[in-house]
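Dig into this one:

. . .
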Amino acid sequence: MIAKKILFIPQNKEHILNMNPVMAKLIEEGFFCDYLDTNNFFFQDLKFPKNIKTLSLSDKKLSKSFYTMSPMKRIRVVYGLKVIVKDITNKYDSFVFGNDGAIQRQFIYFANRQDKPCSMILDGLINDPVMFSFFDIIKYSNNKLADTKELLAKQIVLFVSKAFSTTKFSAYLPSIIACSNLHVIYTIGEFSRKAVRKYAPKKTVILNTGLPRMISYFRSKPESFIPKHPKSVCFITSAYKWHGMLSYHQYQINDILLIRKCLDTLYPDEDYTLYIKLHPREDLRDYVQFENNKGIVLVENEPFIGTISNYKVLLSNLSTCIVEGMNLGVNVGSIMVNFPFWKVKNGFLKDDSIIKYFSEGELMSHLKRQFEFPDVIYNDSTKNVYLSKHTPLSIERISENIKSLF
């Protein structure tokens, strides 16, 4: 039997962390596995293992990151790759994706035409693509026209994603993540599996495997620890600008300013530092207003395990790190002061075990309580439904399923 060739197509660093051990397992069992280098398109500065063959999607580098280009320019880029993508798909027997953006959907289309299996290790927590209704707008919205447009846009994108997922037009149209014509999707946990199952193509198998990069989260730990920076708050951002969600980015900025205000009010004569941990796909220039701000430090390229150990109080808005923290037994509070909670109330934040702050007073009270004692006490994490209990076996489960697709 001729050994099968599998092409892994990552877009960001988390994808690499999930793919590396799966690839190593498959190579160990006789498969040929290569990486596709997408750095010239997504500007993610990915580093690939030296012992793995890496194929370049193109030697020509875009003038700027693919997702920061206008819709028409993105369409031209995807169309210009058509021959290259078709040629690459001819050379491999199976494809493993980290996400299913426009360029990836071009691969999926040509792979499906040749009946070659396509799977995706879906990183991150997935909510329903449309989490609020017209009734919510009538009841809660302060700008009904803008929010109605937002809702209609989400509904149209979802409809288009589903209607064209199996066609050659899919790569050129807006799409919802995990809505492509894939054979299998591996999810972070049961919550995400159920969310994706509601809208993904019926033939797509959705498996609750957990993510290989999170295996280290399932470890034994002491009852408590002293963080590296005891007088600190770390706000963990989300890449809203990357996804074109400019208003959400501004909500995030406003909440960062609010945290700093609370610290200044509570501890005017003490050095309490606010650290802003940037999402891996964010641009430092989007936070330039904080660079020379006393008491604020911007943090890049810090793994979440390090974040847990470094800071006393962890906060965010909607980041996956909220449920990652739950699994590690630490609280990552969700600030909903400036954020429109009614738009996301039907997502994972509806879980009562997730701490949420809806006012400046609630946030100040939380900060004051947290700083009464220097150590962080671990919580019970056994009831977390967001990260799969199968995560420690995710490498074996995913690699075995990829093999079964042949």
Q: What stands out?
A: Residues 127 and 347 are 5 Å apart (CA to CA). The chain has 13 helices and 15 strands. The domain at 5-216+388-404 is CATH 3.40.50.2000 (Rossmann fold). The chain has a mean pLDDT of 92.
